[in-house]
Write a structure and sequence with these properties.
Elements: E1 9-12, H1 17-22, H2 32-43, E2 48-51, H3 53-58, H4 68-78, E3 84-88, H5 94-107, E4 112-116, H6 118-122, H7 124-130, E5 137-140, H8 145-157, E6 165-168, E7 197-200, E8 202-203, H9 215-219, E9 223-224, H10 227-239, E10 244-248, H11 256-270, E11 276-282, H12 288-295, E12 300-308, H13 312-318, H14 325-340, E13 343-351, H15 358-371, E14 375-380, H16 388-395, H17 418-434, E15 439-440
Parallel strand pairs: 1-2, 1-3, 3-4, 4-5, 5-6, 7-10, 10-11, 11-12, 12-13, 13-14, 14-15
Antiparallel strand pairs: 8-9
Bound molecules: cobalamin and iron/sulfur cluster.
Length: 454
């Protein structure tokens, strides 16, 4: 149920109306970044509500809403004190945000509209010049205190809009580390059990070299969280009774002493409460020794690793270290060890990397076959705005920017031009034929895979 209170700020992470209709996502976690933003506003004294897929799915008053616009207007009606609406914009959903913002502009010109998030960070110039009619302020990068202060002063002054503003957040001072308190707002909706919560022990990536990845752009320098913070967050997270905690550590890189301390702390506090631990790691950092530490936990572990491809040519192009036979043998051994030790390993594999040839995808498929039964998540390559790969392909005129803004296929976008896209889809489809059990990311519907479909 929507509660009482004088909400002043509404923060929205809209996906697509298709997803609203389907309400298909089962294990949603509250939006991490947007909750940091919410917590920052709350700490500055402004009552704030987050509207994300989780809320849309679980909040009784919003259950009948068929679109994000419907849900937003319902919330605005319920809380007449809302003066500011902030959107977290993901590139895939930029069109939805654009449409909602235009409508809000027309119907509620009094509202102050702010855009932020990965899309604004990746394409800030384009956003500022192209979409500026739809917002009053755009924030690139992490939200720092000066931005909260600026936006807060507008809320305090009330009435009369200041000039359109472009604000650059400081990635070095991410203020929102502790976001668990922010989950309180979901308590009324989740019937006492959170399906999934996220606990982060690091910020950014220590490698930061992959040319397709936006980690550096979005999270800045690599930072380890301090133990006290992790303890507080963990205590709080456990009190929410989660079914699953996602432990985000990039990438299990703490030296063994620290790592052991964290793992034993988590284990001590929560092993009997949490069904499943889940974390991401990279090929560079994973080792049997680290996994042996993890196994000391009594809970089940699932570890996802970004393999992407084993083709050395493509790996070089992506800025990833090529893997030699020794690396592959070591990795195979690690997978076998994990299987015996009850640690589930999953792999992210990408198809449709620009310049990919049949022999590249065949090489990867053959390697996966040799690994035996393993959880696989196949992704169709996306070229994200702001990344080095994006800039390179843009300079070579190989990017079709329009495809980002294709409303019909919001979740199935890759930015490479025509033929490349068809080829990419063909490799992806072929890989899925070989491994029908693999999960697909980036596709809502299998039909989207049919090559040549418009
Ligand atoms: C964990 C994660 C997930 C988790 C989400 C967990 C969760 N509940 O939050 C899962 C697996 C569910 C997920 C799903 C998806 N994800 Co994701 N995800 C990430 C990842 C690895 C970390 C996100 C994060 O926590 N960042 C740290 C936080 C602090 O940063 P942030 O969210 O950007 O927020 C900060 C600022 O941007 C800013 N900000 C953000 N919003 C706003 C709004 C306002 C008003 C203001 C002022 C400021 C502001 O302030 C925040 C605090 O500093 C990022 C990569 C990355 N390193 O960021 C990709 C990433 C965000 N995901 C991405 C994508 C594409 C998706 C999917 C669309 C994939 C798909 N096809 O299904 C879905 C979308 C689902 C959904 N409903 O949102 C892309 C977005 C690219 C882009 N250009 O838009 C990213 C960048 C990864 C990538 N490069 O591929 N994702
Ligand atoms: S893909 Fe993974 S290892 Fe590479 S820069 Fe991004 S987060 Fe780091």
């Amino acid at each position: 149920m929507l509660g009482t209170g004088n909400i002043q700020v509404l923060l929205v992470l809209p996906t697509t109306d298709e997803l609203v209709k389907l309400k298909q996502r089962s294990a949603l976690a509250p939006a991490y970044g947007l909750n940091i933003v919410a917590e920052s506003f709350r700490q500055a004294g402004y009552e704030t509500m987050v509207l994300d897929e989780f809320m849309l799915k679980h909040c009784r008053e919003l259950q009948d809403c068929k679109s994000w616009v419907g849900a937003i207007f319902k919330v605005l009606q319920y809380y007449p004190g809302i003066k500011m609406v902030g959107f977290s914009v993901l590139t895939n959903f930029r069109k939805t945000v654009l449409n909602i913002s235009r409508l809000l502009r027309m119907q509620r010109p009094d509202l102050y509209i702010v855009w932020g998030g990965p899309h604004v960070t990746g394409l800030h110039k384009e956003i500022f010049f192209g979409d500026a009619g739809c917002f009053d302020a755009a924030v690139s990068g992490a939200l720092d205190k000066s931005i909260v202060k600026y936006l807060g002063s507008w809320l305090d002054a009330g009435g009369g809009k200041p000039q359109l503003k472009f604000l650059e957040g400081s990635l070095s001072q991410n203020i929102g580390w502790e976001l668990a308190p922010s989950y309180d707002q979901y308590l009324d909706f989740c019937e006492g059990v959170f399906p999934r919560l996220i606990l982060r022990t690091t910020q950014g990536c220590p490698w930061g070299k992959c040319k397709f990845c936006s980690a550096r752009l979005l999270e800045g320098e690599y930072v380890l969280c301090d133990h006290e913070k992790i303890t507080r967050e963990l205590d709080r997270a456990i009190s929410y009774n989660p079914g699953r905690i996602e432990f985000h550590d990039q990438d299990l890189l703490w030296d063994d002493r620290h790592f052991k301390r964290i793992i034993s702390m988590i284990s001590e506090k929560s092993s009997h409460r949490i069904e499943e631990f889940y974390c991401h790691a990279s090929m560079e950092s994973i080792s049997i020794e680290k996994l042996a530490l993890i196994r000391e936990l009594s809970s089940t572990w699932k570890i996802f690793i970004g393999l992407e491809t084993i083709s050395s040519r493509l790996r070089r192009q992506l800025g990833k270290k090529p893997l030699n036979n020794h690396d592959l043998a070591k990795f195979t051994e690690l997978v076998e060890w994990s299987r015996k030790s009850n640690i589930e390993i999953g792999l992210y594999v990408m198809f449709g990397i620009p310049g990919e040839k049949p022999e590249d995808s065949k090489m990867t498929i053959d390697f996966l076959k040799r690994l035996g039964n393993i959880e696989l998540c196949f992704l169709l390559m996306k070229v994200f705005p702001g990344t080095p790969l994006y800039r390179k392909l843009l300079a070579e005129n190989k990017l079709s920017r329009d495809i980002w803004f294709d409303e019909e296929r919001p979740d199935m976008v890759t930015a490479v031009e025509g033929h490349e896209l068809e080829r990419a889809k063909a490799y992806w489809a072929h890989a899925l034929e070989e491994f029908p059990q693999a999960k697909m990311r980036n596709a809502i519907d299998k039909k989207m895979l049919s090559v040549g479909e418009q």
